Amino acid sequence: MRIIGITGGVGSGKTVVMNYLKEHYSCYILLADEAAHLVKKKGTKCYEELIGLMGREIVGSDGEIDKKKMADILFFKEGMLDAVNAIIHPAVKQYVLAKIEEEQKAGQVDFFFLEAALLIEEKYDEIVDELWYIYADESVRRMRLKNSRHYTDEKITSIMECQLSEEEFRKHCDVTIVNNGDLNETYHQIDCKLEEYL
């Protein structure tokens, strides 16, 4: 089983790539965002630590951590984001490692794909066999984000400024998949790469 990390800037089309992989390959797909949601569910160590850090006001009526209540504290309290990340990121990494081990033991799939925006920053290159960078021109990404998420230019710029530069992505990734809009071309690049391993 080959473990491949998939990353790229906002609007690059990682979801489109993941959907194609899911439909056409024998694989297990793990989205880091989903893992981050699961690790802070009620009853987990992460849940207790976050409440210890931020207080019970982040808990919703269902007893689970309320994303919006958490965000309200997160971005207005100095140093809180770093403290929360120091709890969530290691927990997500443990979850990912456990899933990889589970899939390796099961021996049912050819590929394990892990998708996350922060694969490079969180040193996931130490876990995966290779990193893929999903690339799209900035103008294409901006257009996608305006059309699909109705983001303003200001919001898009502020998100992009927080992410790694194209140069950084390319420096750390083993494979670049260009996803500028011709999906057949994108899929062809994926197929050519994965056929090397089958």
3D structure, described in words:
The chain is built from 9 helices and 5 strands, in the order βαβααααββαααβα. The protein is of the alpha/beta class. The chain has a single domain (2-195), classed as P-loop containing nucleotide triphosphate hydrolases (Rossmann fold, 3-Layer(aba) Sandwich). Strands 2-3-1-4-5 form a 5-stranded parallel beta sheet, with helices on both faces.
CATH architecture heading: 3-Layer(aba) Sandwich
Give the end-to-end Cα distance, rounded to a whole number of Å.
Answer: 10 Å
Assign the structural class, choosing from mainly alpha, mainly beta, alpha/beta, alpha+beta, or little secondary structure. alpha/beta
The strand line-up of the biggest sheet is 2-3-1-4-5
| Approximate helicity band | 40-55%
What is the fourth-level CATH superfamily?
P-loop containing nucleotide triphosphate hydrolases
Mean pLDDT: 95
What would the principal axes of the Cα set say about the shape?
Answer: globular
